[in-house]
């Protein structure tokens, strides 16, 4: 499996150990969802930080 992490457009390098951890955690979470078939091909996650209101 291949994973890429970007923060604010900057690609963040990860060694093999970290990649395996991130992939396995995300894969496990997604595959426990009842509407997801184990034959999936790609998972895409987009996270935006909420604006801080002062």
List keywords for this structure.
54 residues, alpha+beta, two-stranded antiparallel sheet, 1 helix, 30% helix, 11% strand
Description:
The protein is of the alpha+beta class and 54 residues long. Helix content is 30%, strand content 11%. It contains 1 helix and 2 strands; from the N terminus they run ββα. A two-stranded antiparallel ribbon has the order 1-2. A hairpin with a 2-residue loop joins strand 1 and strand 2. The radius of gyration is 14 Å and the shape is extended. It starts with a strand and ends in a 23-residue tail after the last helix.
In a few lines, what is going on in this structure?
This protein is α+β, with helices and mostly antiparallel strands and 54 residues long. The protein has one helix spanning 16-31, and strands at residues 5-7, 10-12. It has a two-stranded antiparallel ribbon with strand order 1-2.
List the helices and strands and how they pair.
Elements: E1 5-7, E2 10-12, H1 16-31
Antiparallel strand pairs: 1-2
Q: Which blocks of ≥5 consecutive residues have pLDDT under 50? A: none
Content-based structural category: alpha+beta
Q: Whole-number average pLDDT?
A: 92
Main β-sheet description: 2 strands, antiparallel
Outline type = extended
Lateral strand order in the biggest sheet: 1-2
Euclidean distance between termini CA atoms? 42 Å
Roughly what percent helix?
25-40%
Please give the count of helices.
1
- Kindly state the number of beta strands: 2
């Amino acid at each position: 499996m291949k994973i890429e992490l970007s923060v604010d457009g900057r690609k963040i390098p990860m060694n093999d150990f970290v990649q395996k951890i991130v992939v396995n955690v995300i894969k496990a979470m997604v595959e426990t969802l009842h509407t997801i078939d184990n034959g999936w091909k790609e998972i895409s996650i987009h996270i935006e930080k909420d604006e801080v209101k002062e």
